[in-house]
Amino acid sequence: MTWWFLIPIVAILVGGFTEWLKFKEKQLKLGDTTSTLSGNLDHIESQLDATIKNNERLQERVKNLEAIVTTQMWDQVVDGGSQSPANRPELLEIPEEESSDEEKARKLARRMRH
Fold first, then answer.
1. Which of 31, 52, 49, 30 is nearest to 41 (CA)?
2. pTM for this one?
């Protein structure tokens, strides 16, 4: 008759143990999610770094191209030759055609070379 008080104590301990197991399972799932997110963040950071480097490289190329175009135009203006934009207003005009920016740039470049 003295064993009857052990039944509720064992039930409480088993209930606590099952709750602890559920808690550990949730922790493991969260750990997996965190490691997956960490891997994704590393990938995003590497892509961002590559994009920033590419952007800086392209900005440098644009600066170089601007310098080349400006120098050629300046040389022509200072020389006062027939190729000077002041003497050839058609160099500064872009025809009013329905063409893309690439085509307009190509036509303007061809005019500058001749």
1. 49
2. 0.37
